[in-house]
Specification:
Elements lengths: L5 E2 L10 H13 L9 H21 L6 E4 L2 H13 L7 E5 L4 H12 L3 E5 L9 H7 L4 E5 L13 H11 L2 E5 L18 E5 L10 E5 L25 H36 L5 E3 L10 E6 L9 H10 L2 E2 L15 H5 L10 E5 L6 H21 L5
Parallel strand pairs: 1-11, 3-4, 3-5, 5-6, 6-7
Antiparallel strand pairs: 2-8, 7-8, 9-10, 10-12
Helix pairs in contact: 1-7, 2-7, 3-4, 7-10
């Protein structure tokens, strides 16, 4: 009998949908020109590029000229943080949360080494930033605040509208990493108080290697790459047209399907949480209500305090044909305390024991039920033998 294969790591990456693949193939076969060229081959490529820009802008209800294509979410985050910072001749003040993705945390640390003053806002045990803490942290020289919209490791959603409003009222710019949110929850940049927003193609069933940064019209951003001045001078380099076309196709379909798909994902998430809620060894991490619709995360512990690492559970679930992750995919290969769980108040010991299950288009109720059954068995066996005593 064949072993079931269930992929539950959609927060790490999503399988490209057929429509995105078809869009990429059409570009590579027929519309492969350079969008900056003035002849007919370039014009055809430019039309593909602008169609994709319109599709991505449509997902966010944003102006066409506010979308800057990048090589992914990481570059979009770096462009937001460093692009603002480089517009100042002297170091200023930056505010980020303690639960940012490393694509924000690392540029912030770089700026610290260059003399910038960085405030790392704390979070509560559910991973939420307090608007009052942000208000208290703002200073006269604060030029940028960056708070992640939906935390990829624990699923917590931040009160972005309130945080953005506080920041803009102070006169600073507000950025949010919305990589996990875009395509799963509505984002309306005509009303949301955000100056910069990052998203990624491969989180919404587009290809890897493409992303975008929304830049509010009128905001000056210093480019990180010198070159031909593509993307209105904000991101030089010939655009990766096939990947961008796939990104656009995926964005358009995400916008179309979101009203029903989001509700379906919430149902699957809550179904799994309900089936595992009576396990004392499995504690939900992150906010139970203000949470990404496709996301469930847990910390593993035994009654006597012994623990099994998240990495060990990932390996054992994989042997059972089920793909999950130990926290963020960017850190899941490291057996070290999760900085996200540590910031939320977990001990170093417990912060090595996080797991994440995330769902998507191909996830069914049967997948959820089978996963809950297998996870119970794997967890019972692991804690009984303490395969990995920390």
């Amino acid at each position: 009998m064949l072993k079931m294969q269930i992929y539950l790591d959609y927060s790490a990456t999503t399988p490209p949908r057929h429509e995105a693949i078809a869009a990429m193939q059409a570009v590579m076969a027929e519309q492969w020109g350079n969008p900056s060229s003035l002849h007919q081959w370039g014009n055809r490529a430019a039309m593909v590029l602008e169609q994709a820009r319109s599709q991505v802008a449509g997902l966010l209800n944003a102006p066409l000229d506010s979308i800057v294509f990048t090589a992914g979410g990481t570059e979009a985050d770096n462009l937001a943080i460093l692009g603002v910072a480089l517009s100042y001749t002297q170091p200023r003040h930056l505010i980020v949360s303690q639960v940012e993705h490393s694509a924000i945390a690392e540029p912030a640390r770089l700026l610290e080494r260059q003399g910038w003053d960085v405030t790392w806002l704390p979070v509560d045990p559910q991973g939420r930033v307090s608007p009052a803490d942000l208000q208290a942290a703002l200073r006269r020289d604060t030029v940028l605040v960056s708070i992640i919209y939906g935390q990829s490791e624990v699923g917590t959603l931040q009160p972005i509208e309130e945080l953005g409003r506080i920041t803009q009222a102070h006169g600073a710019r507000f950025h949010t990493d919305a990589v996990q949110v875009a395509g799963r929850l509505p984002i309306d940049l005509a009303t949301l108080p955000v100056d910069l927003l990052s998203l990624s193609s491969h989180k919404i069933y587009g290809p890897q290697g493409a992303g975008a940064l929304y830049v509010k019209p009128g905001l000056e951003l210093t480019p990180l790459l010198g070159g031909g001045g593509q993307e209105a001078g904000r991101r030089s380099g010939t655009q990766a047209l096939p990947s961008i076309a796939g990104f656009g196709a995926a964005a358009a379909l995400a916008a179309e399907e979101m009203p029903t798909e989001t509700l379906r994902l919430i149902h699957l998430r809550d179904r799994l949480l309900a089936q595992l809620e009576n396990l004392p060894e499995l504690a939900v991490t992150g906010d139970r209500r203000q949470r990404l619709p496709h996301h469930a995360s847990f910390c593993i512990t035994a009654a006597d305090g012994d623990t099994v690492s998240g990495k060990t559970l990932v390996r054992q679930m994989n042997l059972a044909g089920i793909g999950i992750s130990a926290g963020s995919a960017c850190h899941s290969g490291k057996l070290s305390p999760s900085p996200i769980l540590t910031a939320m108040g977990y001990s170093d010991r417990a912060a090595k024991c996080g797991i994440r299950l995330s769902f998507g288009r191909h996830t069914t109720e049967a997948d959820i039920d089978w996963t809950a059954l297998v996870l119970r068995q794997v967890l019972d066996r692991s804690l009984s033998s303490l395969v990995c005593r920390l």
